[in-house]
Amino acid sequence: MNFELILVLATVITGVLVLLDRMVWKKKREQSAVTQNVPVLIEYARSLFPVFLIVLVLRSFIIEPFRIPSGSMYPTLEIGDFIVVNKYSYGVRLPVLQSRVIPLGNPERGDVAVFRYPLDPNVDYIKRIIGVPGDRIAYIDKVLYLNGEPLPQEPLGRYIGLNSGSVMTGARHLRETLPDGRSYEILIDQDRRGMNIYDVVVPEGYYFAIGDNRDHSADSRSWGLVSEEFLKGRAFAIWMNWDQGLQWSRIGRGIE
């Protein structure tokens, strides 16, 4: 049972108790000849229902926190980052069911998106959206091709990782640029063999997602495309980092 389902059940149960008390039990207490105290269960329901409701609305429709558990998005996101995700950027979805009821937008190339892992929807993944419907994607000799054209890669030197990221020290640090001018940093590990893919055409309703740490990421190159129905939101900021202690320099950073 996931946290979202627990939150929905808690909101419904406390809400029903508050409603029944107002419509039935409160009247019976007032009509009783003997003074009756409000039951403890009802007191708790009155106190907790607005809290559960606010958290449910915020988490389901506005923003949701996530923690980065792996290094697949270095250097953009590091192990220990706590991020916030805009839940309505890709449309309003019903909690638990995750069906989109109000389409407000779609992922754009370059977005860092959170989605349910296609091979296990109970697991959340975070990657960068590179291919949108209609795009033709290839990844050859560690160069990403979009619609037949290689994406420019500007060298930034050798990466120097801190804390858990120290294992990536020495990797090639590059800035990759999309055709619309949007850019972001990536890492290339020359000591690892690249995974080549050729001419993947992204169909309607699907997206091609890839990690910024190109040689240490399981993504659309290995397990396939991300369905629109699995999208959860766009990551836009880091609110905290805890990796071998609190890393103050990462608090409040925006996500390219």
Automatic annotation (TrEMBL):
Residues spanning the membrane: 6-24, 44-62
Residues at the active site: S72, K127
One MF annotation (Gene Ontology) recorded for this entry: serine-type endopeptidase activity
Top enzyme class: hydrolase
Signal peptide segment: none
Source organism superkingdom: Bacteria
Keywords: Hydrolase, Membrane, Protease, Transmembrane, Transmembrane helix
Domain Peptidase S26: 42-239
One BP annotation, GO: signal peptide processing
Tagged with keyword Protease: yes
Keyword Kinase attributed: no
Its EC number(s): 3.4.21.89
Alphabetical list of InterPro entries matching this protein: LexA/Signal_pep-like_sf, Pept_S26A_signal_pept_1, Pept_S26A_signal_pept_1_Lys-AS, Pept_S26A_signal_pept_1_Ser-AS, Peptidase_S26
Membrane topology: Multi-pass membrane protein
Major location (coarse): membrane
Localization per record: Membrane
Gene Ontology, cellular component aspect: membrane
Family label: Belongs to the peptidase S26 family.
Full protein name: Signal peptidase I
Lineage of source species: Bacteria, Pseudomonadati, Pseudomonadota, Gammaproteobacteria, Thiotrichales
